[in-house]
Amino acid sequence: MHIRDIFKQNPTTFSFEFFPPKTHEAAELLYQSIKKLEPLKPAFVSVTYGAGGSTREMTHEVVLRLKTTTTLDPVAHLTAVCHSEQDICGILQRYAKAGISNILALAGDLPHDMPCYDRSQDAFRYATDLVNYIHQFNDQKLHPDHRGFGIGVAGFPEGHPDTPNRVTDMTHLKQKVDAGADYICTQMFFDNRDFYDFCQRCELIDINVPIVAGIMPILSAASMKRIPQMALGMRYPAKLLRKLLKYQDDDQNIRKIGIDWATQQCHDLLDNHVRGIHFYTLNRAMATVEIYRRLGAADSSELAELSE
Ligand SMILES: Cc1cc2nc3c(=O)[nH]c(=O)nc-3n(C[C@H](O)[C@H](O)[C@H](O)COP(=O)(O)OP(=O)(O)OC[C@H]3O[C@@H](n4cnc5c(N)ncnc54)[C@H](O)[C@@H]3O)c2cc1C
C-alpha cells in the first residue's frame, strides 16, 4: 500500500526493520522472527540495503519474500552510494514490476572495505538526488500505482555526523523533504527530548510530513558498544548510562535495562501522540514482542489505542 494511504489509515503507525541475512542460519533466524512478529500487525516493515553486492541482492529477495509469503507490507531501502543511474533504474523497475509500494531513499555510507572509493563516480551524491530521481521514475508511469513509489527519508534527531552545523543539517533535511518525501524515519535515539525537539525544529521550518521515531532496545553488552558505531552521533543519556555501567558485561541485566528503557520511551512517545514508532529489530522478535506485552497490547491496533 502506498505510504500515504498507510498514514491515512493509521493515526499511529508501528513498523519493524530487518536487515538482509548473510548466511543460511541467519536467514532461518530472520524468517522465524518474522513469523513471531507478523501477529503484531505492523503498518509496514522495512528491509535495509547493504554495502556489498550479495547483500544488495538479498535485500531484493527478502522484500519480495515478505510481499509474496506474508501479510506484511515491505518498504525497500535503497542507497545512492556505489550506484550508477542505470543500476538504480534497474532496481526501481524490478520493484515496480513486483508491486512494491514504497522506497526509503538514502545516501548510504561508504563500505568499510572501500575507504578510498571516489563518490564522484556515483550518479547521486545525496538522498535528495535519489528522491528527485525516484520522482522522475514515477512520472514514467511504470508502477502499478499511478502515483508511483511512496518515498521515505532518514532524519537524525541528534544531527548527522557529516554536517557539524546542525542548522545547515536541518536545511538539507528540508530540501530532501521538499524534493518529495512522504515521511521521515529517524535514527535511533535514547532520549525522547531529542526527538521532540527535532519534531519542533522540523515544524518551525515547515516540514510537515509524518515523522516516525526509531527505537532500538539495547540487548547485550556487545550491542551497547555496537549501537554508537552503527548510529554515529547518537548518545546514551547519563541516566541510562549510569544503569548500564553498573552491570558492565552482565548481558542478562543489560537486556532487562535495555527493554525497560525502550518500553518507557514508547510509553512516553505514545502519551505525546507520536505519529509512528519504528522498531529496529536486528532480525529478532523477542524484544519487540516483549515491549508490546509490557505495554499491554496484543497487536499494533491495541498499541495505537494507548495514544488516543
Ligand atoms: C532510518 C534509517 C535507515 C537507514 N538505512 C540504511 C540502509 O538501509 N543502508 C545503509 O547503507 N545505510 C542506512 N542508513 C544510514 C544512512 O545511509 C547514513 O547515515 C548516511 O550517512 C546518511 O544517509 P541520508 O540518506 O540521511 O543522507 P543525506 O540526506 O544525503 O545526508 C547525508 C549528509 O549530507 C548532508 N547533505 C545533504 N544534502 C547536502 C548538500 N546538498 N550539500 C552538502 N551536504 C548535504 C546532510 O546534512 C548529512 O550530513 C539509515 C539511516 C537511517 C536513519
Summarize the helices and strands and which ones pair or pack.
Layout (H helix, E strand, L loop, with lengths): L2 H7 L3 E6 L5 H14 L6 E4 L5 H17 L4 E6 L5 H13 L4 E5 L20 H13 L10 E6 L10 H13 L4 E6 L3 H13 L6 E5 L5 H10 L7 H10 L3 H21 L4 E5 L5 H9 L5 H6 L3
Parallel strand pairs: 1-2, 1-8, 2-3, 3-4, 4-5, 5-6, 6-7, 7-8
Helix pairs in contact: 5-6, 9-10, 10-11
Flavin-adenine dinucleotide binds next to strand 3, helix 5, helix 6 and strand 6.
Q: How would you portray this structure in words?
A:
With 308 residues, this protein is of the alpha/beta class. It has one domain (3-305): TIM Barrel. It contains twelve helices and eight strands. It is globular, with a radius of gyration of 19 Å. Flavin-adenine dinucleotide binds next to strand 3, helix 5, helix 6 and strand 6.
Provide the low-confidence segments as ranges.
none
Query: From N to C, what is the helix and strand string?
Result: HEHEHEHEHEHEHEHHHEHH
Strands of the biggest beta sheet: in what spatial order?
1-2-3-4-5-6-7-8
The CATH topology: TIM Barrel
Q: Largest sheet, if any?
A: 8 strands, parallel, barrel
What's the number of extended β-strand segments? 8
State the share of residues found in helices, binned by percent.
Answer: 40-55%
Q: What integer is the average pLDDT?
A: 96
What is the overall number of helices? Answer: 12
What is the count of structural domains? 1
Structural class: alpha/beta
Under the CATH scheme, the architecture is Alpha-Beta Barrel
Distance between the termini: 24 Å
**Class, according to the CATH hierarchy?**
Alpha Beta
Beta strand %: 5-15%
If you compute it from the alpha carbons, what radius of gyration comes out, rounded to the nearest whole angstrom?
19 Å
Shape designation: globular
Bound molecules: flavin-adenine dinucleotide
